[in-house]
Amino acid sequence: DSGVTQTPKHLITATGQRVTLRCSPRSGDLSVYWYQQSLDQGLQFLIHYYNGEERAKGNILERFSAQQFPDLHSELNLSSLELGDSALYFCASSVSTGTNYGYTFGSGTRLTVV
Amino acid sequence: DAKTTQPPSMDCAEGRAANLPCNHSTISGNEYVYWYRQIHSQGPQYIIHGLKNNETNEMASLIITEDRKSSTLILPHATLRDTAVYYCIVRVAAGGTSYGKLTFGQGTILTVHP
Buried (b) or exposed (e) across B47-62, using 16+ Cβ within 10 A? Predict the structure, then answer.
């Protein structure tokens, strides 16, 4: 157990639907990062939050949004789902964004869009 | 962030040292080298990082060349459980809006044989 909790572990939904993925960071970690891993794209950075504020955006689609709440947990919302959104979604956390800190990843949510 | 180049795959016998190379010839002076690994669709796991000095921890050693253009991750006594994809990542130092993200390449698939 890495200390980063992601729920649900598996999610199957239909095209056009909306889902919410949840991430609870390790205790004391202020930063949360979201990554998408599909078979053909590898691990892609989506977005980074630090203490409730968005800090960096990667290749995140407009249909996707995220937020970090006051208790530091984060949610990734995916809407108007397409078949190509099927992927593993990982959340990672770190104490800070400084380079002396490694990231701790959760075990991921496997999303299947049918 | 500087790009990295890694061999797509490597083999190693169990009990032997695994030496995984990484080329990062365009690395800047304030960029760190990080190593992560991912075991079969689990969340990536932090291994080690360094700036210019060699580093060692309970998992591995990191050797960075004097010109910092390449590095080698060493797993001193590889086991079957070390079979994974190993990612070498160069990350900008703190500051700016992109320093929080890790840019994963394709990595090296290390297979440890009995």
Answer: bbbbbeeebeeeebbb
Along the 114 residues of chain B, how does pLDDT read in single tens digits? 668 999 999 999 999 999 999 999 999 888 889 999 999 889 999 999 999 989 999 999 999 999 999 999 999 999 999 999 999 998 876 555 555 678 888 999 999 999
Q: Do A106 and B99 count as a contact with CB atoms less than 8 A apart?
A: no
Q: Touching check for B56 and chain A: CB below 8 Å?
A: no
Q: Are A80 and A20 in contact (CB under 8 A)?
A: no
Q: Which of A4, A45, A103 is nearest residue B103 as measured by Cβ atoms?
A: A45
Residues of chain B with C-beta less than 8 angstroms from the C-beta of A44 = 104
What value does the CA radius of gyration of chain A take, rounded to a whole number of Å?
13
Using CA coordinates, name the residue in chain B closest to A39. B41
SS3 for A84? helix
Contact (CB<8Å) A45/B101:
yes
Distance CA A74, CA A35 (A): 13
